[in-house]
What does this fold into?
Amino acid sequence: MTQRLEMISSSALRRTFASVCVADHAISSTRRGMLIAPLLAALPLALLGATARADQIDPAETAITLSDAIKWSAWGGGPPHSGEVATLYGGLDRSGPYLVLMKWNPGYMSAPHSYATDRLSLVLSGTWWVNSGAAFDPDKSVPVAAGGFVRRVAHTPHYDGVKREAKEPAVIALFGIAPVEFELVDPRKPAWRQV
It folds into this structure.
């Protein structure tokens, strides 16, 4: 039975390919030829009742963390319900590269601060409000929507967060080299501000 299907599929493939291939066996540039070629490549498996199956991934070579397995926790020193953090790679307090997700809830911003190294930030969802300088003024912050990129230059003061009227938290992916060495512009004032 299997040999008969292979013969039928080979014969059918030859006839079909003949109509979409040119003399030198290159795929025709017609739309029909471009669309049918991938389908024809999968036809023998379909006719034989076989299914394609990927090999198992070796976690020592490719580490995968699905979104529902990401472990979020309240960030240290912040007011209750101000935000959460999830460390995906490295850490802010360990030497080397890091990748951290930070979730800012509406109504909270950081006080002006700086880092010892550059920080690259990509807004994944929501709107993140940012500004530079030592003077805290949330009304002068600039909105960065999902998909936006922010680079924080080492040793320059800045502040950020999510304004109270926001409908959702902002989630930001943070990339950089640690240790971060977070330093407040004015350590006598709170590191987090309710806005």
Observations:
- Residues 1-28 have pLDDT under 50 and may be disordered.
- The longest strand covers residues 96-104.
- The helical segments are 2-20, 31-48.
- The chain is about 20% helix and 30% strand.
